[in-house]
Amino acid sequence: MTATGQTGQPPVLLLHGFASTAEETFGQPGWIRALEQAGRRVIAPDLPGHGSSEAPLPQTRADLLSWAADQAEAARRETGSVDVAGYSLGSTLAWELALMPDAGVRRLVLAGVPRRDHLADLAEGVTNESTLFLAKATDAAGDDEAQRRLEAVVKAAAEDPFNGAERLAAEGPPEQLVLVAAGSQDQLALMPAEVKAAARLFGTSDPDGLVVQGRDHVSVLPSRELRKAVVDALGG
Length: 236
Known about the structure:
catalytic activity, Rossmann fold, AB_hydrolase_sf, Pimeloyl-ACP methyl ester carboxylesterase, alpha/beta, 6-stranded parallel β-sheet, AB_hydrolase_fold, single chain, 13% strand, globular, AB_hydrolase_1
């Protein structure tokens, strides 16, 4: 899913969440259209194991990250850099991608960053509100093949869990971070105030923070306030 953007502007790579697709996470809520209208070229692939992706099923989290790095490399061939925005599972891949010296990430937007690796919890049989939410999403995926593919992603995540709170406390957020966002009712995600505080502590970045009132982990996506903030943060 691509669009012609402004000359010289890096493309925007969008990385979606678990048990979803790029269209469901970014297309239907209007992110792609808003970025295109701002003159940006958008690249929004389905993650391995999701939607129309033909990528091999991941065996480890490193496989997911390698795939994301390949997407970034292809995206930045013309301009030398890429802006990345990630949501939920996609935000953890975007975070790690920004830390890779050769990935060429210029600006980074994170929305709904999981406080801990809820997929790893699900793989390990932990039962709580977060894993029940993810299990329900997996069950709703459709046919047996779609569920099998998602279960492979869950197992891959469990091989090397991404704990957002621990990463934040140990090293702060990536220096390219320009916006961190979450819904005020999101029980799964790090709150922007936490991320901004860690950024100040470690001196890594000075991101804007957005809390969308009355929205949870999913309902935050179609927020007009969030769309505008993303476009503004990645602009110019």
